[in-house]
Amino acid sequence: MTVQLQANKAFDAQDIERLVQDHQVHRDVYTSQDVYALEMQHLFANVWVFVGHESQTPKHGDYFTTQIGSQPVIQVRHSDGGIKVLHNRCPHKGTKIAIDRHGNTGTFFRCPYHAWSFETDGRLKAVPLESGYSDTSFETTENANGIKPVGAVHNHRGFVFARLADSGISFDDFFGDSLSSIDNMVDRSPEGRLEVAGPPLRYMHKCNWKMLVENQTDTCHPMVAHQSSAGTAVRIWEELGNPEPRPPAMQIIAPFMSPYEFFEKMGIRTWPNGHGHTGVSHSIHSDYDSIPGYFEAMCFTYGETRAKAILDENRHNTIYFPNIMVKGPIQQLRNFIPIGPDKTLVESYIYRLVGAPDELLARTAMYNRMINAPTSIVGHDDLEMYERAQEGLLSDGLEWVNLQRLHPSAPEDFSQEAVENGTTERQMRNQFDAWKTFMTSTMPRSASRNGSE
Amino acid sequence: MTDFTHDEIIDFIYAEARMLDEGRYDEWLELWLDDAHYWMPLDYKQDDPHLTTSLLYEDMFMLKLRVRRLKGARTYSQKPKSRCSHVIQRPFVDLLDNEAGRYQTNTSMHYVETRLDDQILLALTATHDLTRVDSALRIAGKRVDLLNCDAAFGNIQLLP
User: Fold this and answer.
1) Shared-domain flag, residues A347 and A439
2) Tens of pLDDT along B100-134?
3) Which among B64, B74, B155 is the nearest to A374, CB-wise?
4) CB contact under 8 A, A369 and B56
5) Number of A:B CB contacts under 8 A?
6) pLDDT of A102-113, one tens digit each?
7) What are phi and psi of A90, to 5 degrees?
8) Do A369 and B53 touch (CB under 8 A)?
9) What ipTM was estimated for this complex?
10) Which of B57, B65, B150 has the CB atom closest to A369's CB atom?
11) Do A180 and A194 contact (CB within 8 A), yes or no?
C-alpha cells in the first residue's frame, strides 16, 4: 500500500497523519515539496520558533534580520525596551525593510523605495505626499496599519521566540518544563545573563531540516559515522604516548567515540510537544575548580548548594521543537533553518556567560569551531550521511523510514514526561507526534471516507 | 646561515600551494613549526581567534588529524576524494628580515575544491608568517581570510 502524497491534490489533515506511524514515517516527510509547503504554512505558523537573542539588539533601533520558517522577519528593539518581531516587508509594495544581517535604524524605519516610515514596533508613522490618499479609504486597508508584527513574541531569559499565527498555544503551554534547559544555561552565568559572542557559523546542508534535528539525539551514530574523525584522534594521541594535558582535539572530538554503553547510561528525557534532551544522568563528579575564579563567582551569587546544583546538571543536547538544539553546559545554540525540502541552513551561535572568566568563552568558541563549522571533520562525517539519505530516499524500493529503536510494546504517551535508555529513538517519535499535531491543527479535515483506502 | 632572497620567499609560497594541489600532505606538514597555527577567521577583519568563533584555528595535532583522516578507509565524506586547485597572484613580501630570520607574505588566491558534481570557488588572502630554521623556511603561522567569510558554506574538506 502506498500512502505517498499525490501531486496537485488538495491535502487534508488525514493525508498528513497517514505519513506518521508509531514506529516509522513515510519518506515524503523528508522529500515532498507539498509536505514542505504545508510545514511552512501550518507547522512553522502554529508553534513557537526561535528568532534570536536579546543581546543581538541591545539598544533602541537595533535590528537583526532572519526567518521563521519561510517568513523573512526583523527582530528589533523598541523604544519601551521590549523586543518586537516584524514581518520584513513594507506594507506598500512589499520591499524588504532591511536586508543587512544587523544594524541600527535610529528611532524609526524608513522604506528605501518610497520613504514610508514606521515606528520601531511597525506602526505607520508617515507617508510622503499623503494628500494622494485622501478620500481613497486608505485608512481602512491593512497597509495603513504599518509593518505587520508576527502573531506573538516572548522573551525567555534573553531568548526571543515568536509564533507567526495570531492565535494558538501559549508560550508556557508549548514549552512547559523543557525551559529548564535554557534556565540552566543562563544560570551558569554569575550575573544570570548571556551575551551573544560574534557572528554564527553558517553551514548549508542539502538535506531536510528534520534529519538534522533527529541527529542531535541519535546516539547510535557517533561511534560509527565519527570513527574517521574521533577514532583517528584517539589513535594519534595513543601513538604520541597519551600526553597530558590533552590537546583540544582530544577534549572535544574524541568523546564522539564513546561506546554504546556510555550513551545508554546517559539517558534521554522527553517532554510534551516534541521537546527533549540527551544527558539525563547527573554528573556527580563535576569539576568545580577547573577554571579559577568561576566557582567562587557562582557561589557568591547563588550560594554553594545552588551553585553545585546548577553545575551538576550536565545536559547534552536539548531539542526545542521544531528546529533548535541548545547545549547548555557550553552555551551554544544551533538553529536548523528550513530553506527547501532538501535544503537547510544551520546557524550555530555561542554566548558569553556574563561575569564568568574568559576561559569558559574560549572553550565554547573552540567547541563551536571544531564541531559545527563547515570545515569541521565531525561536521563532514554528518553532512555526508544526511545528503546520502536525502538522495537515497528518492528510491521507491522502500517508502518508510524506521524509528523503532527501543519502542515499547504498549503505545507511547508523549503527553507525559519520560526518562529512558539513552539509545532510544523515543525523542524522534516524540518530534513526529508533535509534528502531526501542530501541522494538522489548522488543516482541513475531510469527512469520513467510505470504502477501502 | 642562509639569507633568503625576495624570490626565494615567493617560491616557497608557490611550492606550498603546489604541495596541497598535488596531495603531498605529509611533505606539507613538515613545513610547519610545532607550535604554529592555521587560522581561518569567521568574521571579516576578525582580530581574535580565542573569544569568538573561527572557521579554523588548527594546531599541529589537528592538522595531522586532518591529513591522517583523508587517508582513512572509513572516511566516508572522502569517498570519493576531494581535489583542490590554487591559483595564486604573485605574493607580496611584506617583511624580509634575514637578521631575525622572520618573513611575512600576503597572497591573493582563488581556491577551487571539487568532489563529484560539486565545485566551489573561494577567493581569499593568505598571510604567511615564515621563520628560518637551520637553512630552511618553515611556517610559523598561516592566516586565510575568505572574501565571503560570512556566507553559508557546504563542506570545505581540504585546506586552502
Assistant:
1) yes
2) 999 999 999 999 999 999 999 999 999 999 999 99
3) B155
4) yes
5) 118
6) 999 999 999 999
7) -65, 135
8) yes
9) 0.97
10) B57
11) no
